[in-house]
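User: I'm preparing a small set of examples for a lab meeting where we compare how different chains pack in three dimensions. I only have the primary sequence for this one, and I'd like the structure in token form so I can line it up with the others. Please keep the answer compact; I'll paste it straight into my notes.
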Amino acid sequence: MGVEKGAVLSNDNGRVRQMWHLLEPLHAVLYFAPQVFEEAESLGYDTGERWPSYFALRAAPLGAPGPRRVTSAFYSFSPRTVAEHIPAAWDVAAPGKVIEARTRGIDRAYRALFGERTDSPDLAEAAALARRAAEAVRTEGRPLAAANAELPWPKEPHLVLWQAATILREHRGDGHLAALLTAGLDPVEALVSFAAIGAAPADVFASRGWTEQEWSAAGERLFSRGLLNADHTAADAGRALRTEVEHRTDELAAAPWQALGDEGTARLAELLGPLWLEVLGSGMLPRETTLGIGKV
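Assistant: Understood. Below is the structure token output for the 296-residue chain.
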């Protein structure tokens, strides 16, 4: 993945999106690494499927939130799906214990993934740059970014890198929800419209827990707005709306990279490339996700 030094960031949403593409897999290790599953299992979570630990690991920085707050912050999940795991997750382990376990799991996972790179000068430089960007985020109206930004920074560079990637990821995600709300897309409509433009097959979104009836009803609402065709493929207006959502999301995610500057952002992209390749090459992450990376 070649990155040109000195690339211009100003008014360049492509660079903002590139940083998301590079950092998202580094964050997502949390939800798929066997080392993290082992740590979650040691706390008492069922790791036969990913969701019991997912909800605990992602929501723990919020404290011990109830299902309404988690549904609000996560947005795309059915309230029923959230209620299957929250607040039961806090009966298994307190949020502080979950955060400690996820740190141990990421430490082990990154060491397994990156080997000697873990203690390299390049990774330390990447961690320092990513932290600078993460410390520049504005957290007003961004609950998940704010919750992760409040956590103390670890000392080890590879853990600093993961925490920075997580803050930046959730900062972007919180902004994406604002863009969806502005576009008038409720949680299930957001998924239906995303599937309709080919971001991922519809069955990939089944994990969010919406029934066939709810999915179909959302499609009918979007059809009545002229956003879907009769066969529930995306109409031109639907594609335009989703393009606007992505554009607005990029705009809302730009501030940390503007603060880091063109040179710092380009250098971070260069340093992240080999780590990104290691994560993707491990086969740990699924090929199809609900994020539409590389397709939108």
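A couple of notes for your slides: The chain has a mean pLDDT of 93. The chain has 14 helices and no strands.

User: Perfect, thanks.
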